[in-house]
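Morning run. Coffee first, then this:
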Amino acid sequence: MNALGFRTKNRELCRQAVAALEAERPMTLRQLFYRMVSAGALANSQKEYKRLGGVMTKLREAGDVPLTWLVDHVRSTLKPSSWSGLDDFGDTVRHAYRKNLWAQMPHHVEVFVEKDAIAGTVQPVTREYDVALQVCRGYASLSFVGEIAGQWAKVRKPVYAYYLGDCDPSGFDIERDLKAKLARYSGREFSWHRLAVRREDFERHNLIALPVKSTDNRAREFRTRHGTACAEVDALPPSELRARVLAAIESHIDPARWARLLEVERLEQETLGELVGGWDGKTNLDPLSRPGQEGPP
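And here it is:
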């Protein structure tokens, strides 16, 4: 990394930020900001957040930090799926098949997160284990809850839900509201566990304790139940969040049975590959790409 192009006060920030990204990548800019605040490299202010953003933009534009090390999980690209031909589609089919291993596990497991940024952080774990990841984006709408509750009502096994959200009046009230709606509309019992942020995280992970907003009408109840310190879930290291989700999921898995089912999945994928393998090079219907064929004048 070449930090010589930065002012003296930003050179140490560059070093610490790149070191954090090397250990925790990928991260959102807000997650990196909280790492720098916890390390004492930045003050907890909007001005310092913008300062970090400017530094990281320069480092990435210069090629000193790969673009993929910092991610934006809020913005997305919307495009229908398409393929160059049936052989290309066959490759997609081969890799898309997944066996529902949870059908033979004793519990139904889902993970809930308060915001999009955290969804991107833990999704590698939930995707690997084929676990539903529900993104609340603040207070859950009735449509959002109704769809989940309808699915839970059909599940004939214990349901376990894990939640990651902010430690502040809003974060806990969003969680309370979500649990109440799920209980009301699913009509069933379920186990609920908060994975983050928890009280012990402030000391264990050196989180910056933000004050409770006195103007929040939920402040008194929050102080009574949870204390006077607030923190966003983004402040916890991404690796810690992924580790907690992983541990929660694996606690519901029978390792021996899971391994056998993975082997069955592999064999089924091979069978599917043989079925679609005959498509390669035999189903190109585009006259413009056939040897000896000419297109329209």
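The chain is about 50% helix and 10% strand. Good start to the day.
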